[in-house]
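Key idea: predict the complex, not the pieces.
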Amino acid sequence: MKKKVEQYDVVIIGGGAAGLTAGIYCGRARLKTLLIEKSLVGGLATYTNEIENYPGFPDGATGLELMNLFHKQAKKFDVRFKLTDVKSVRLEGETKIVETFRTIYETKAVIVAGGGKPRLTGAKGEEDYLYDKGISFCATCDAAANTGKTVMVVGSGDAAIEEGMFLTKFADKVIVSVLHDEGRMDCNEIAKSEALANPKMEFIWNTVVDEFTGEGRLEEVILRNLKTDALLPVKVDACFLFIGYIPNTEIFKDILNMNNSGYLITNEKMETNIEGVFAAGDVRDKFLKQVATAVGDGAIAGYGAEKYIAESETFHNQIMQDDMPGLVFVWNAVDPKCRDLMPIIEKYEAENQGKVRVIKVDIYKSAGIANRLGVFEAPCVAMIKDGKVFKIIKDRICEDEIIAAIE
Amino acid sequence: MMAQEVLLDCLGEACPVPLVKTEKKLTTLAVGDILVVQIDHSCAMKNIPEWARKEGHNVEIEEVDDGEWEVIIEKVK
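Result:
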């Protein structure tokens, strides 16, 4: 099967809070924007039953409701959505490639907002029972199927405890395996006291999963006590893992810079190590992973992508033209040496109207265009001929040098 | 034999029914066949693609209507 090829200005990988916000910014800037999400638009937030700390919703909102509003807003700005997973990327150069199982997308900029996926325990037998065979990561998805049953929750963070409490509405018994000493949990205090008071919840402290067993389907979780090493088999109908997330960054390995845990490294403009490639949200190495911070990242990445594309267009349509020679004066408005040269450049511009195109690039505002010319300091003059840079003058910039270079 | 495309109607069905039906149906198909699962329960958007990808199949989802989707699974093994 031959793959289709489609062109976009921006391709956003990931449809959570960060990706959707980036989409809103790009769409609103009239960029042709595609958002690729591998399952449900809304991302990790849709797994959360109640979001109480996203500003603007004093009565709280469910994750799904909130993300549906984000989605609707992105659609309003003509962001297109494709629900599939990205197989591979080629990000170097000006035309970047994002490939899915049926289509090749060519794009000017890429925003990586792929978030994370649930972390596994690494216990024996785990692989054999994932998703459909008893180990689940989504209480909202699988709670109803466990009506009247006994389930285990592994973890004690906000997600584990809140989802565990949600499960008690269906299951007869929810057994929580907690790593810490009795009474210590990673979740917030309100959730903790509610959970401890819930008669359907039972806690097994100082334990981790040692093994998952069962005939075809999960039947038993064998816990190991961290202090005594004693093994404790527990009969269950299902097990829910809420022990954190790992970033979805496998396809960017050896392409984008990441930290030891695989989170992408960006600067405060959400720029990665490759020009025109941005990262936003939980996929980044960052201090706080929340809907509120993902929105901030997404806005910056969307705005950054827009600026990057505008700069590319200026570069190609104004600077690298081959109809007449060009002179690019790279300067810095706050540098007196640069300002002193301006009259010389402007005099030259006036005398050569229609013969030489003179463009001034202020690197104080943005270094992007200068970098594309291969110029990293100011003042500097780059001479363009036949659509190519043919000479860069760094020292002793004066009229004679310029005239000599042009001739 | 040409690869065939098979439609599986799971509209109106809640999790985990669509996933169970998908699993069963896929065992009856040959490698290269495409299964199109129609769903309108958003939770099936999570567990069907997750399961199918874990099994190594190719997955793409089309939003047919507001709140109605087709999960397209290409059986690869």
